[in-house]
What does this fold into?
Amino acid sequence: MENNSSEVLLMKGNEAIAHAAIRCGCDGYFGYPITPQSEILETLAVEKPWETTGMVVLQAESEVASINMIYGGGGCGKRVMTSSSSPGVALMQEGIAYMAGAEIPGLIVNVQRGGPGLGTIQPSQGDYFQATRGGGNGDYYVLVLAPASVQEMADFVDLSFELSFKYRIPAMILSDGVIGQVMEKVVLPPFKPRRTEEEILRECPWASTGRKGGRPVNVITSLELKPEAMEKHNLHLQEKYQLIREREVRYEETLTDDADYLIVAFGSAARIAQKAISIMRAEGIRVGLLRPITLWPFPTQRISELAGRVKGIMSFEINAGQMVEDVCLAVEGRTPVTHYGKMGGIVPTPDELIQALTEKLKIEK
Amino acid sequence: MTEEIIISGFGGQGVLSMGKILAYSGLMEGKEVSWMPAYGPEQRGGTANVTVIVSDERISSPIVSTYDTAIILNQPSLEKFESAVKPGGSLIYDGYGISVPPSRTDINIYEINAMDAAAESGNPKSFNMIVLGGLLKVRPIVTLDNVIKALHKTLPERHHHLIPANEAALRMGMDIILKQ
It folds into this structure.
């Protein structure tokens, strides 16, 4: 693979994640193969970054081991990541909760497949609740980015690490089998070196980097037996989450200015919605799209603003209706909200979306 | 221009790699492209298909339900995708193993006996390039030059000596495709 950073390449979303990780100074990847994301580990194995940037790539014995390796690496201030698909990410939830409690940064990539349980290997967005509601125990969030293209798969790796270290919060890229498997054009991010030990000492004074110069001991744990201290820690986490809600909401709008109807969709569903919108616009029906890029924090305020201007909103997701709850919370009953989606690894087509939209929002042609 | 193409056949026929070379050829033309495989527990002899979109504009959905062109390489694929070709669109099929040929009258149907031609040429692996040549003849969405460039891009260097044979197969496909 050529290394000219401006060259337009053609690759799968999963491959783009691997190349982007090497290029953004990732220190280590720990993962276990599972369809439909195995190309991430495969690409790293082919590229052998341990011979170039020094990035560690390790196939762990399980997903539980992977996430705890992230806990260890992140606790040392290293940029480390794992990837899996839905049932594998389910196994990681305990470790993610521990990371959230101990304020350890790190990146988890979920290329979703249909569930529940082992489910199917075909695409799904059924892990929205798991990703945005914490998934593990206790009051916590992870920062969730939802890429809708191979380019965003590449771009969100560095962004995830930046935000994850800025707020000391686990970050998740919530993708799915479509965006993981599709090949599209991509321009890979420019190379940036891995951080030196000195840079980590300077930027991560909280990390367990070896006690030098008589600094106090850095203890990284999610355990605190004194309820008063634990409450204080929880209040600190909640303040941090509020700050993230205020600063880090990201979304993209398509043709919302004059829209009579609004689709809210993320990831691959947003791509299908774009096609449906272009077909409906050609028939004179003014439909727009709001695509949340961060699923947590959710673009509640913007959806609330748009709710006052449209006749109806559809949350279009490849699941039974999960994000629709967040849309309803934003809309507060001011305009009709409905959901359309499919489950079990079936991806709705643009035509099916148009039919559902027309029927459920009673659009007259 | 937007061309939405489904290529469907048996696993092992080179369906996915034909789609990949087509997508790369589109990239060489400076067009927008997407390549979306029906991934799964596929195996040699099972079914395999891929959706390739080549467009002058940004591609929205990589998944579509109707196609401008269908390239059909076995009977189950014909049954699945004949009805999904847009009226006025094209269907290209290899007659080998097809017991019930396509019957629609509102689309352009082409037959290419690539399986036989590949066997006769002594290079059965050139099958998918013969089919791709047939596509280029009837739907010139990318140029032959750009397909050759794409082969340089997609084939590992140790296989570059096979590019002339691939070019010959593409030209053969252009010659033998027949409109019904």
